[in-house]
Design goal:
Radius of gyration: 25 Å
CATH topology of the largest domain: Rossmann fold
Number of helices: 18
CATH class of the largest domain: Alpha Beta
Strand content: 15-25%
Number of strands: 15
Helix content: 40-55%
Structural class: alpha/beta
């Protein structure tokens, strides 16, 4: 089943919004934003009437305004961020960010600009249309200024801004149902092309240094993905490696691969623009990768996302179908178990992250590949002790376990050979040479020894060798 509607608090035509009872609008918003603070509730009650007055003035002046739409608290998919108001008017979209003050800060400007940037980059219905960010200090009056591409104006000036947008670029208004289709939020093709070119050209400062060393693993993964598409089957690939061996680079090269466009299955009459995604629970890593990929546009989020938001989005509604055919899970050995997921999300019946990802993959039409990147000895937090075994448990518990094949390096394949799961042993899926810091080729042995609580004496030789290579380690409490 394909989900049709995105998440938002209120969405209606201009006439319906103008005539709606303020308390009714607030109740709808409160039902959507369940953790709304008393300050937020008060802000809604104060801001809705001025917005309704401005919409009324637009309706009086513009004969097409009856076809315009107002959307409040639209949740940006996989972001948990919500612009206050979107107005689908004339030639495009006005993004309103309300701040409840008589003045504003640079942070307010940046927030409004970021919402507009994401809609331009990721919303299908915004392609080729004007997306105009407007910061609205609700206690200001008139037009205030234009800074960094953002209009700043009091609520009383909104009708004039709408008029400028609709007069200068008259076009058929965006259809609200099409805008709210959850599948409409996806990277635009130009952004996808730019991100792929950035990876292909090797212009990134750090993550492309080891491309040749990771070629065997990338080629093996490509073979498995083509096999999955050809046979319409589902596969779990486990790639292991010591820290710094290039696992992240393998994952990034995989999700940016051009061939995925030809293999993907159409949805709603069109193929997904980004048929793969790199997901990580390591927040700083996600920020670094997105920063490095920002040169392609779209704030670097075309193929790289945080795993927690992804899980939240697709676990909330079983009818949601991920657009991707290839899901790359970074640090798969650190995936949360069921107890940690339940504790974090406050639900008793919640499953482990591996179980959820296998279930997400089962929803994808025709074929899917889950690629788990596994670092040696890096299960370091509570809820991560289950390690690699959780992934085999998840596949065994799939609704279609016989439709899955697991591909793993010999050390893992031999360990789980006794299970009823089909396992292929692939040496190319093991990266054992550290590339990030060439001199410290025994670093992973030292770290693994520390995590395994080996004696100080047993680690002394390795530590001395690392020190001789100018890699100095200190243990502190």
């Amino acid at each position: 089943m394909t989900e049709r509607v995105a998440e938002y608090g209120w969405g209606s035509s201009f006439p319906d919004f103008r005539s709606a009872d303020v308390a009714r609008v607030r109740e709808r918003l409160q039902a959507f934003v369940v953790d709304a603070s008393p300050e937020q509730l008060r802000a809604w009650m104060e801001s809705i009437p001025p917005l309704q007055r401005e919409v009324d003035e637009v309706l009086v002046r513009d004969s097409l305004a009856a076809t315009y739409s107002a959307i409040l608290e639209y949740e940006v998919p996989m972001e948990s961020r919500r612009p206050d108001v979107l107005l689908l008017v004339g030639g495009g979209v006005m993004v309103l960010e309300l701040n409840g003050k008589p003045d504003f800060s640079q942070a307010d400007i940046d927030q409004a600009a970021a919402y507009a940037r994401d809609l331009r980059s990721y919303h299908r219905e915004c392609a080729g249309r004007d997306v105009v960010p407007v910061l609205v200090p609700t206690r200001a009056r008139g037009y205030v200024t234009f800074r960094d591409g953002v209009h700043v104006a009091g609520p009383d000036h909104l009708d004039k801004l709408v008029r400028e947008l609709t007069v200068e670029r008259p076009r058929t208004p965006i259809d609200r149902e099409k805008f709210l289709n959850a599948n409409a939020y996806c990277p635009l093709p130009t952004l996808v092309g730019a991100a792929r070119e950035l990876i292909r050209s090797g212009e990134l400062r750090t993550i492309n240094r080891a491309s040749a060393a990771t070629d065997p693993a990338v080629d093996e993964i490509s073979r498995i993905i083509h096999q999955a598409a050809l046979t319409k089957s589902r596969h779990l690939i486990l790639l292991t490696g010591v820290p710094g061996a290039g696992k992240t680079l393998v994952g990034l090269r995989t999700v940016h691969a051009h061939y995925l466009d030809d293999l993907s299955t159409p949805r709603d009459g069109a193929k997904p623009t980004a048929p793969a995604v790199f997901l990580s629970g390591n927040g700083p890593l996600v920020e670094v990768l997105q920063y490095e990929l920002r040169g392609a546009g779209g704030d670097g989020k075309t193929f790289v996302r945080g795993v927690r938001e992804y899980v939240k989005r697709y676990s909330a509604r079983p009818e949601r179908v991920p657009p991707e055919h290839v899901l790359v899970f970074d640090e798969a050995q650190r995936a949360w178990d069921a107890a940690k997921m339940s504790d974090s999300h406050g639900k008793d019946s919640i499953r482990s992250e591996p179980e959820q990802f296998v279930e997400f993959a089962d929803r994808v039409p025709e074929w899917c590949v889950v690629l788990g990147l596994i670092g040696s000895g890096q299960e370091i937090n509570v809820g991560e002790e289950g390690g690699v075994g959780q992934w085999f448990t998840a596949v065994a518990g799939s609704k279609r376990p016989t439709g899955w094949t697991v591909h793993a390096p010999p050390a893992i394949a031999d360990q789980f050979r006794a299970s009823n799961i089909e396992i292929e042993s692939r040496p190319a899926l093991s990266l054992e040479v550290e590339l990030r810091y060439h001199a410290a080729d025994d670093l992973h042995r030292f770290v693994a020894g520390i995590l395994a609580a080996e004696s100080r004496a047993s680690l002394a030789d390795v530590g001395a060798k690392l020190a001789a290579q100018d890699y100095h380690l200190r243990i502190t409490r």
